[in-house]
Amino acid sequence: MAGPKNDFSQGSMPRCILSMALPMTAAQLINILYNIVDRMYLGRLPGHLALTGLGLCLPIISILMGFANLCGTGGAPLCSIHRGRGETEEAERIMGNAFTLLILFGVALSVLCLLFRRPILYLFGASDATYPYARDYLTIYLCGTVFVMIGLGMNPYINAQGFGRMGMLTVTLGAAVNIVLDPLFIFVLGLGVRGAALATVLSQGCSALWVLQFLTGRRALLRLRRSALRLEGRRVRRILSLGVSGLVVNLTNSLVQVLCNATLQHVGGDLYVGAMTVVNSVREVISMPVSGITQGCQPVLGFNYGARAFGRVRQGIRFTAAVTMLYSLAAWAVTMLCPAALIRVFSDEPGLIDAGIRAFRLYFAAFFCMSFQFIGQSVFVALGRARHAVFFSLLRKAFIVAPLTLLLPALGLGVDGVYLAEPVSNVAGGLACLITMYLAVYRPLLRQEQTL
Fold first, then answer.
1. Which pTM was predicted?
2. Spatial separation of the C-alpha atoms in residues 216 and 218, rounded to whole Å
């Protein structure tokens, strides 16, 4: 049973959420350094081909991370709900099944991507000039896929037990190793993109070892036990049905990145693909605090939902919504006012800066509406609403952004049309998700509270 400090049914909901959200937000920001640091260093190499080559690998990396999220965000909320009910053994069996799935996915995806890396990269927008850079990075990165699966996929189970700081240390360790090794491998040893990939793989290996050491140790409330590793159909279905929303988010993000890169390559060329790499990099950074806040609320909401403390769940939703919206407005203002400064973090090339400023102003025009999507999606996942989570994961990217990315440039907007698809989806998809969450979850919770 959980100790007092891990009992989210006690104390104020804002304090409980912040106790998880703050370290998870820091962890999210540190985690993004894995790839962001690579891009910052590679952007200092002559020209923009190395940076563009890495950008072509990002959709594949996003897919790999999606499968880690499939098992992590699928099983961890279930662990929180069962922990709230006092069902420790079932929570451990869910965690064990998730670990086995992560290993299987990691091995299968590594082999598949290595076999088909050339056609995949050309399909994703590579040219003869950028393919060698993308190939070198991806080949080495895929050798560490299992590390990615364990480090990223099992860390939510540390957070689900209330050890937010320990979860933060998981990604801090990996990011620190990556920051140290990147300049050594890229510049001192002259390995270029291969050095960036090697540093990333080694850093992810350190994170994976840290996670396994904690989850098999004495401090864990839920331990990773050998007896729980055997797959059981009912548990696997529960994990995958809830986690598929996280996978869909990554898959649709990858789809959009592929369409953007391919369309930009066609209507603009390598320079605009490089500019989109910078746009995506900044989006990842400024989205991480929102993601950390909303993911930090999930163990707390799930625990209280399992304990039938419906009033506390509603309070937690209100607090999370307020904090997320305020942050999103602040981040939107920064991107609108300081695009050139943000671009120079990654590259000083004048052509890339000129192309990137206009891209920023269009792409981030309605970023503040992204908070609506994050809020609704996190509540659906936290309370086990798999169907809602999956639908709204698909709606914004697959049903709005992807078609507009192809349609708007064809209507004569050129590269601007690629960037304009995002703000349209932020408004339409975000509002639809938030309103549905309010009607389908928030208001019914009040009726459930009144019947107790």
1. 0.69
2. 7
